[in-house]
Specification:
Blueprint lengths: L10 H11 L3 E4 L6 H6 L1 H21 L7 E7 L22 H20 L2 E7 L2 E2 L8 H13 L6 E3 L5 E2 L2 E2 H13 L6 E3 L5 E2 H11 L4 E4 L6 E4 L5 E5 L17 H6 L8 H18 L4
Parallel strand pairs: 1-2, 2-3, 3-8, 4-7, 5-12
Antiparallel strand pairs: 6-9, 10-11, 11-12
Helix pairs in contact: 1-3, 3-4, 5-7, 5-9, 7-9
Length: 293
């Protein structure tokens, strides 16, 4: 494996890399991918996530590789935002609720345009939330697993979250990466929703994480005054902080991956409970050897 320095905001370097490597498959996973942060870095998010995708597609075209490259675009369930139907599938209308979602919407349609205008084998994978122990520390699932691990190890007593009742369709990243690859092995370029079809709340993720370390969380209070207290010790381990709420919330996401099951023979393998346990176990191991990780 050889790594190349590049940036989605630098079209010259993208052309240079693609011309040198002459890849047969490109997976565009590059993005400013944190939804909450996109409200603070809206222009940057648009430049990287939206126009950056165009730069990469243009680089393929400039290098004369339209007929030899297969292009995968990491699309997102955040396109659905204020959901127009439940569950969401490939034909569900989009209604993004963040600068991130809006930037990804441009990326989605410019991929479709290159497919239709130039006959490029280009696909959008509309992936719902996918997690693993490698998830960034400022994403809610990893924040929970890290904090629960620290509480278990006596390194922390309490942590704060935003909207506990946000509901998401959570799967394991390794299952979803397989789906990405399968899309590029398909005979025809098509867009696919990748999801589990199961919905769980942030609150439920918290409860299952604590149960894995032998603690039962009991909820008290309402809204920003709500706390999660340990039934066994009486200690408050979870509080709510309004600063973690988004200006426009996405309350409910649930994917329908029927098309992927039928056309790609894909299905999710890792169940929600197994995912939670794997993330907490990994962080217990990490924090026990490196508390500052």
């Amino acid at each position: 494996m050889k790594l190349h320095y590049g940036d989605l905001t630098d079209s010259t370097c993208l052309v240079k890399i693609i011309n040198e490597v002459k890849p047969t498959e490109i997976y565009n996973l590059g993005a400013q991918s944190h939804v909450k942060i996109s409200f603070d870095l809206a222009e940057y998010t648009a430049d990287v996530d939206g126009v950056g995708t165009l730069r990469l597609l243009d680089a393929v075209k400039t290098c004369g590789l339209i007929n030899s490259v297969k292009f995968y675009q990491a699309s997102t369930s955040e396109l659905y935002g204020k959901v127009q139907e439940i569950p969401q599938k490939e034909t569900t209308p989009f209604y993004p609720r963040s600068p991130y979602g809006a930037a990804k919407l441009y990326a989605y349609w410019i991929v479709v345009n290159f497919r239709e205008a130039y006959n490029l084998f280009a696909v959008n994978g509309i992936l719902f939330n996918h997690e693993s122990p490698r998830r960034g520390a400022n994403f809610v699932t990893r924040k929970i697993s890290r904090s629960v691990a620290k509480i278990y190890l006596g390194q922390l007593e309490c942590f704060s979250l935003g909207n506990l009742d946000a509901k998401r369709d959570w799967g394991h990243a390794k299952d979803y990466v397989e789906a990405m690859w399968l899309m590029l092995q398909n005979d025809e370029p098509e867009d696919f929703v990748i999801a589990t079809g199961e919905v769980h709340s942030v609150r439920e993720f918290v409860e299952k994480s604590f149960l894995h370390i032998g603690k039962t969380i009991v909820w008290e209070g309402e809204n920003e005054n709500e706390v999660g207290r340990c039934k066994e010790t009486g200690k408050v381990h979870v509080t709510v902080d309004l600063k973690y709420y988004r200006p426009t919330e996405v309350d409910f996401l649930q994917g329908d991956c029927t098309k992927a099951k039928q056309k790609l023979s894909w299905k999710p393998r890792v169940a929600f409970d197994e995912l939670v346990r794997e993330m907490v176990d990994a962080d217990v191991e990490l924090m026990s050897t490196n508390p500052n990780a």
